[in-house]
Structure prediction request, 125 residues.
Amino acid sequence: MKLDHATVVTPHLDTVRHFFCRIVGLTGGARPPFAFDGRWLYQDGRPIIHLVKTNSDWPQTRSPSRIDHVAFRIASEDEWQAPLARLQAGGVEYQQAALPASGERQLFVVPMPGVMIEFVTAAAL
Prediction:
């Protein structure tokens, strides 16, 4: 397993994009056709930072910008089934989704309030 990307949710989309592109050196690139505004920022051909536009200052924090979740790329079907089995055995709630266009599978878990983990893998065969 390896870290796939980080998502930053912010009402200041252009400011955050400017920081990651101009200061960090990432470049903007293709993004699936989600129903919400955002940007994907790339390094070495991979989208490593996902920006999501919000119009809300929720949750109440010093800053409405935050890192939303950490994602881990899973390489094989066996490796994908392992966390599913552990979540089910432990009675832990999760949500599954598929990325628009690519069909890649996602699994989202909130192990504690304010912390979200995503697992992502290739489309089902």
Notes: The longest strand covers residues 2-10. The two ends are 20 Å apart (CA to CA).
